[in-house]
Design brief:
This protein has 161 residues and is of the alpha+beta class. Helix content is 40%, strand content 12%. It contains 5 helices and 6 strands; from the N terminus they run αααββαββββα. It has helices spanning 11-24, 29-50, 75-79, 98-103, 142-159, and strands at residues 80-84, 89-93, 105-107, 117-118, 124-125, 130-132. The strands form 3 sheets. The chain has a two-stranded antiparallel ribbon. Strand 4 and strand 5 (124-125) form a beta hairpin.
Amino acid sequence: MAGVSITIDAAALDRAIARVGALGEFDAGDLMSSIGALGESQTRRRISDEKTSPDGAAWPPNRRGGSILVETGQHLLQSVAWTSSSAEAEWGAAWEHAHVHQFGATIVPKNAERLAVPLPGGGVARPTKVVIPERPFVGLSGENRAELLELVTDFLGGLFQ
């Protein structure tokens, strides 16, 4: 009589089930914390070093030719922060004038015909308005997205080791 014998090695299946089971116990809080910290770092780098919008466009130069967004102080850079929960990560700038740099602004006098703008060497300029061009600093460039994807991939890969 001829027979057939089938042997199933379930050891590999048991390991796979154990690895997938790790996802059931997964707490995304640590991952979201890492994402927030990386997003903050990317934003700080954009302000201090890259001087470009998230889409890669160079920021318009300032009139003084100095270091854009950090020339007169560190308010913007120092206000960049992140927060996270187990469901999300957020980062941005808390400085009260950060939106002016992100979106641009036109400043006009409220109670006079002209503004009074102090000049660096002394004196005062008297324009009817001042236009501040947008210099977006919050957002994700292609490189930022790749860094975040690598972080998530590495983090999730660590769950299965």
